Amino acid sequence: MDEPTKNKIRLILAALPTKPGVYRYLDENGKVIYVGKAKNLKRRVSSYFNKNHDSSKVRMLVTKIRDIQTTVVDTEWEALLLENTLIKEYKPKYNIMLKDDKTYPWIAVTREEFPKVFSTRSPDHAHQDTFGPYASVKYMNTLLETVFEVFPVRTCKVLHKNPRPCLQHQLGKCPAPCANLISPEEYLENILKIKEILKGNSNRIIRQLHDEMMDCAERMEFEKAQEIKNKLDILTRFKGKSVVVNPEITQLDVFSIVEDDQSAYVNFMRVIEGAVIQSYTLEITHKLDKSKEDLLFAGMVEIQERFGELFPDILLPFQPDTRAEGHTFTVPQRGDKKKLLDLSLKNAYAFMVEKNRRRDLVSPERRGQRVLSQLQKELGMENLPAVIECFDNSNFQGDYAVAAMVQFANAKPNKSAYRHYNIKTVTGADDYASMKEVVRRRYSGLLEEGKALPDLIITDGGKGQMEVVRQVIQDELKTDIPIAGLAKDDRHRTNELLFGFPPKVVGVKLNSELFRLLTHIQDEVHRFAITHHRKKFAKGFTHSELDDIQGVGKVTKEKLLKHFKSVKRIASASEEELAAVVGTAKAKVVAEGLKRK
After folding, report:
1. Rounded Cα gap, residues 189 and 319, in angstroms
2. Measured between alpha carbons, how far is residue 173 from residues 146, 170, 511 in Å?
3. What is the mean pLDDT of the chain?
4. Distance between CA 242 and CA 145 in Å, rounded?
5. Mean pLDDT of 178-204
6. CATH topology of domain 251-360
7. Topology match between the domains 3-95 and 374-539
8. Please, which residues have CB within 8 angstroms of residue 294's CB and are 6 or more apart in sequence?
9. Is residue 245 predicted with pLDDT exceeding 90?
């Protein structure tokens, strides 16, 4: 940024008001590259220019700013609404991106003399009354079947006047407006009732039908009263199945949010009379380091724009700093409202898992990058731990000591880089000394050959193992490789990582992708070490005096043992007997070798 631009920015910052509002950053071409909202415009905008930022994206944004425009509003909520509008208008490069998932179905009601009611995945909000979206297609179809059974509507694409109604009327599935068997007023009255049910106000319709049934009974129109009673029973049964909490919870909106490294997922549930009538999850792609509250409110504003004004009472997973006039934010701790919030969180998490699973199928490498980014974030590492090496020791009562090293590249086993080690300089069961020897041999060799070092070393042990690795890496080899240790709970699960010196405990959520990766690494190094140990143990267990005679190989040994059955019998045999099996020269070597024993 040149000096004239810096002076221009300083003047703008000095004149900024301390009121709520929206700010826009423009580049050298006058194009809006970022839109933000603020409780205090002066403090928020100035913070971009008067402090160092950890995020490289924010630092890059600041270098591109050549002008600042602001709009003052009365409240924070108004700032949120305006920010959302301007982001859609300008589509700034550095703003979050809202992703619209068009897979959810809606129910549409046409606006005509005899409206149609149908499901669609491409609703026309401008020319139809729309209800939804519905996360469960099964629930939506059940809802449609229920309203059609109670209030039949036409199913034909185009309404043609016809004195003879179609088969649908004979089946009781259409009131036959084409044959004038229902008046426009009566048909529209049924449509209004359908809309009320779709809005979730089924109790109102149930009460209305009950009153109609009682009126018919008083007039002794028992046949019509029975017909209404049948409709009443259908609606009551459906209402009983759809209510998830106390029906006294009349109007409530619920929001929750979950995040991964690339996106945030905001779930919205609308609850009327104890029933969830709408559920929708919105994906928001990160651009700059936005707070969880900013992401949640961005989703809430977008939901309001799509589905209409939010209810006054809103449940949230945490208490926000932002206030919205006319709305009360509550963080439930127990009871039915907590149950609703937990249900919303489950929906958001399930949506995130499904999205990531689909992306992983298209790009398998993406999962590895995601879990490694999570590991990098949890440990606070500067670089992505793309290459991880893990060590483990194995011995039998101090004998047959071996070690193993496995390497994971991009979260996958790189078996060509696996290494076995026979412990050479340690006597007895000394895991720390064995670990020192192996780590020294591994990385002194890589340094001498000029080969790449791993991004992270993991020991299958605690603080003691980490310290001896540090002594070799830092004190002896004078290099710097991050070191972590795997800690286990009482069920031998890798639920904690130790990292840094002095080591700090980093919790790992059970059943998370990171937990599964660390468990895989731990299981793999243990398996590889045990396999090598068993081979060495078996070899030592079957060792005989013939193995120590120079010049006697595997074939000679097998011939002698097959013929004489034991080393003792071979030792007591004459050279002539031995020569008959393996020849004169080998017989002499064997006889002399056994005599020296």
Report:
1. 43
2. 12, 8, 49
3. 82
4. 14
5. 85
6. Nucleotidyltransferase; domain 5 (3.30.420)
7. no
8. none
9. no
Report for 44-53, 94-103, 160-169, 331-340: range of highest mean pLDDT: 331-340
For 306-324, write each residue's pLDDT tens digit: 888 899 999 999 999 888 8
Class level of CATH domain 374-539: alpha beta
Domain ranges of the chain: 3-95, 106-242, 251-360, 374-539, 545-596
Cβ distance 484 to 457 under 8 Å? yes
Q: What pairing do the DSSP bridges indicate for beta strands 419-422 and 456-459?
A: unpaired
Q: What are phi and psi of 496, to 5 degrees?
A: -145, 150
pLDDT tens digit sequence for 88-115: 888 888 887 776 655 678 889 998 888 9
Architecture (CATH level 2) of domain 3-95: 3-Layer(aba) Sandwich (3.40)
| CA 366 and chain centroid, separation | 12
At 6-52, the pLDDT tens digits run 888 888 888 888 988 899 999 988 899 999 888 899 999 998 888 77
**DSSP-derived pairing of the beta strands 387-396 and 399-409:** antiparallel
Sequence-separated (6 or more) residues with CB below 8 Å from residue 299: 98, 255, 257, 264, 266, 268, 282, 284
Fold of 545-596: DNA polymerase; domain 1 (1.10.150)
pTM: 0.58
Residue 372 identity (one-letter amino acid): L
> 296 φ, ψ to 5°?
-60, -45
The larger pLDDT score, comparing residue 383 to residue 431, is at: 383
- The enclosing H or E element of 70 equals strand 67-72
Q: Per-residue pLDDT for 235 more than 80? A: no
Q: What is the pLDDT of residue 254?
A: 94
Three-state SS across 166-205?
CHHHHCCCCCCHHHCCCCHHHHHHHHHHHHHHHHCCHHHH
Which 3-state string (H, E, C) describes 254-283? EEEEEECCCEEEEEEEEEECCEEEEEEEEE
| Number of Cβ within a 10 Å radius of residue 391 | 24
Token reading at 426:
């340690």
